[in-house]
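Deliverable D4.2, example record:
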Amino acid sequence: MPLLARPAVDLPAGLLPARQQMALSLGWHIVLACFGVAFPAMIFVVHRRGLRRADPVALGLARRWSKVAAVLFAVGAVSGTVLSFEMGLLWPGLMGRFGDVLGLPFAFEGLSFFVEAIFLGIYLYGWDRLPPRLHLAALVPMAAAGVVGTFCVVSVNAWMNNPTGFRIVDGVVTDVDPWAAMFNDGVWLQFAHMWVAAFMVVGFLVSGVYAAGMLRGRRDAHHRLGFGVPFTFATVAALAQPLVGHLLGLRLAVTQPAKLAAFELALTTEERAPLRLGGVLVDGQVRWALTIPRLGSIIARNSLTAPVPGLDAVPPDQRPPVNLTHLAFQGMVGIGTLLALVAVVYWLARRLGRDLLSRRWFLAVAVAAGPLAVLALEAGWVATEVGRQPWTVWQVLRTQDAAGPGSWLWWSYAAAFMVYAGLSVGAFVVLRSMARRWRAGQEHLPSPYDPADPADPAEAAEAAESVGR
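Output generated by the structure prediction step:
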């Protein structure tokens, strides 16, 4: 496919601040997006368990989790709105030229957002108001909307890696087919990778919260169920992710050989290529890597002899930042493997009749698993995005040609940083306050849309005090 623009000699002043702001925004928002994908399914499981078994603990969990989901959705709505403006503000060279190509998935993402918001509101308002089965059913379109919205966003990123659905004639984008662009060759595997990652992140984060509670001595049925359901989801995801990632990686030798070379830290194209664990590139030489013969070809190409492409086959001005790409990729794989091992150990011990939830060392590991899952998620996106450089649209549009010329974008970056810092602090304060009041026995937290239960003296007193103020 012909290039849309030649490489620029001077880098635009807006390139570095645009990169920094996009990294901040996407890195922050992606964690919230995971909750939109995975959390409704977990709420559905505990709510359904509560209905089928008349289990007040499960119903209580569903009620609490739905309110946490509402807080995270509200915060994510703000960060998502910021991102929608950033695409045009930071990358005019991309959106100005390819807006017609990318408009369809962005439109569907907006519709999915509204559907998710509507059914989240119905679900929250429906407690003790809707018939039980109808109330439970409200979670289905809510969960589906979260998945569809995420698919639409991932499809845009997959298109950047696998551009299709247009032609370039005399430097002009023409013959646009937005459906072909949206359902490009790489979208299904890339979406599956992100979808599974979302369940890993949310599963390990939520189970880690209850593991922290058990470390403090709260080992009741509420905490055990609160740990067990999300940890089960996380286990399935952690075991499935290596397979999905492997299938996705097999495409790179053909679609993005420069990225694969950086992943494998391969300087030259080699048959029976080794696997290099760790290591960095220093002065054109690989240093401090543990080399395992032939394993690189087996993992990257599903073959004992197939060559792994090297950086020598890539022009110097088209190579990604090798060390960052390599370390991010191996960090993602290493952490993912560790989390899968933690899950296997837990379920194997349980099958052998050993309760690891009574062991402080395991609870500490379970608490750490949540942040580690987030770190693996961020490392994966760094590997994906940095490994595609210097291209925004692979082999079509360079990143330097997609960025705007304005150095004033540093002010925009500073403003975005303050917004995200404020959102982080606000979400932490609200969620911490909710957790404290739940531990104090206030199940139905007073709010404009959830009046205090008059049968609960503590809630009635708090509501009266609020009115008095």
